Amino acid sequence: MNDFEFHRPASVADALGLMAAAADGRYLAGGQSLLPAMKMGLSMPTDLVELSRVAGLSGITVADGAVRIGAATRHTEVAASAQVRDAIPALADLADRIGDRAVRNRGTLGGSLALNDPAACYPAAVLGLGATVHTDRRAIAADDFFTGLYETALAPGELIVAVSFPVPERAAWVKFKQPASRFSLVGVFVARGPAGVRVAVTGAASHVFRARAFEQALATRWSPEACAGLALPADGLNADLHASAEYRAHLVGVLCTRAVAQAGH
Predict the structure, then answer these.
(1) Of the four, 12, 23, 114, 187, which is 20 to 30 A from 172 by CA?
(2) b/e code 106-128 from CB counts within 10 Å (16+ = b)
């Protein structure tokens, strides 16, 4: 691991100022991805701006048909929140099945979204629910946020402060996990609500995406049977030692059917 300067700001303004002054700074939230990358020499920042003491970056509120979650809120807090479980049970369920207990106790919503790992769980909920990512500068719609492999719409130094999730009529999350890492070989989040019918898929491609053919079928008929006969093309999907592209394509249909059944009619 390289030498670096460690900063612990108390406000968003201080964090932004420290990042602007750094030659190659990184925000540090839960550190579940950044610190291992630094240990392996894959990331060598000159400065770490640690966010745990920044006021206003954590917490959960429900108002005006949306659940707003602070970017520094940990996975375990989302999973245990009575407000989230009442408003969007599928979101609490997703948070409760991220990684293992150690990861859930340290990892944060904002950290997961900023990294945009191709197999991460939270991006599926953000895209599947049509959420809005709020930063220190602007509001970014979910459809515009995830842009590529470990790439997002965030500008250099831009800081996620919260995410607003519209409360759906129905929603469910189903994932087929890799047993060791517990990342999604494929994960599918389905929702029907203010943003229409949405089907978000993670683990299958370079980044989370919407399965439009499944959305169209479910918009016509919200039923597990609506997914029957639908197939996702394998072209461009991930292939590795855990699963082929064809297997992942097949899983999308299987998991979407299960998710709709779980969400109910």
Answers:
(1) 114
(2) bbbbbbbbbbbbbbbbbbbbbbb
Q: Name the 3-class secondary structure at 94.
A: helix
Residue 113's nearest CA partner among 60, 168, 158, 65 is 158
Phi and psi torsions of 11, nearest 5°: -140, 160
Which pLDDT tens digit goes with each residue over 59-118?
A: 999 999 999 999 999 999 999 999 999 999 999 999 999 988 988 999 999 999 999 999
Q: What is the pLDDT of residues 110-157, one digit of tens each?
A: 999 999 999 999 999 999 999 999 999 999 999 999 999 999 999 999
Residue from 202, 68, 199 nearest 146 by CA:
202
Task: Tell me whether residue 244 is exposed, middle or buried, using C-beta atoms within 10 angstroms of its C-beta: 0 to 12, 13 to 18, 19 or more.
Answer: middle
Domains of the chain: 1-54 (3.30.43.10), 170-263 (3.30.390.50)
Helix (H) or strand (E) run with residue 116 in it = none
> Which residues have a Cβ under 8 Å from the Cβ of 144 and sit 6 or more positions away?
153
Please choose, from the candidates 27, 23, 44, the residue with its C-alpha nearest in 3D space to the C-alpha of residue 114: 27
Phi, psi of 68 (to 5 degrees): -105, 125
What pTM did the predictor assign?
Answer: 0.94
CB atoms under 10 Å from CB of 145, counted, come to: 24
